[in-house]
Amino acid sequence: MTRIAVIYYSAGGTLRRLAEAVHDGAVEAGATVRLCGVADGGLPEGAAPATLDDLEWAQGIAFGTPALFGNVAGPLKTYLDGAAPLWQRGVLADKVVTGFTAAGSPHGGHESTLLALYHTMFHWGSLIVAAGYTDPAFRAAGGNPYGVSAAAHRDGTVEEAALEAARCLGARLAGFAARVGSPQPMAMAAAR
Length: 192
Prior knowledge:
Blueprint: E1 3-8, H1 14-28, E2 32-37, E3 48-49, H2 52-57, E4 60-68, E5 71-72, H3 74-81, H4 84-88, E6 96-103, H5 110-124, E7 127-128, H6 136-140, E8 148-151, H7 160-180
Parallel strand pairs: 1-2, 1-4, 2-3, 4-6, 6-7, 6-8
Antiparallel strand pairs: 4-5
Helix pairs in contact: 1-7
């Protein structure tokens, strides 16, 4: 069975709701899914804390972060930076990854946040699965081709179109991870 990790940081609840929808879409596609949060002062009740084991275990990974100044939120960035030992062992190469985000305004850095998130994955040698315009649900949620993005509301509510897009993204990630299979750790080339 395909193994997917959904790893997110949520300050106000929006990213948690999106993460749950990505989780549901991957489960509906037949994957076994770990839903894990990254915290800067505690996780919501019932949320499992993300560990590096989640990255090693997963064949596909969805990362969620608020768009803070058009960039990855500090708690998720710290978690990603902590994955350097896995990167050095080549464990993260060929993993299938995608991203999702939310911001408080339509021009709050949705696309730049996803692109910034993917910088780390490019260094890992991961395979980026973008949303593109591959499903009508992505366009209905605003048409962000880099991943799923939503409007962040102070009460944590999320529009149904964004939740549906997140479910589609989870299914898309699971499908690609199933096709790629289980990547084998690659030895890092010696520096020249």
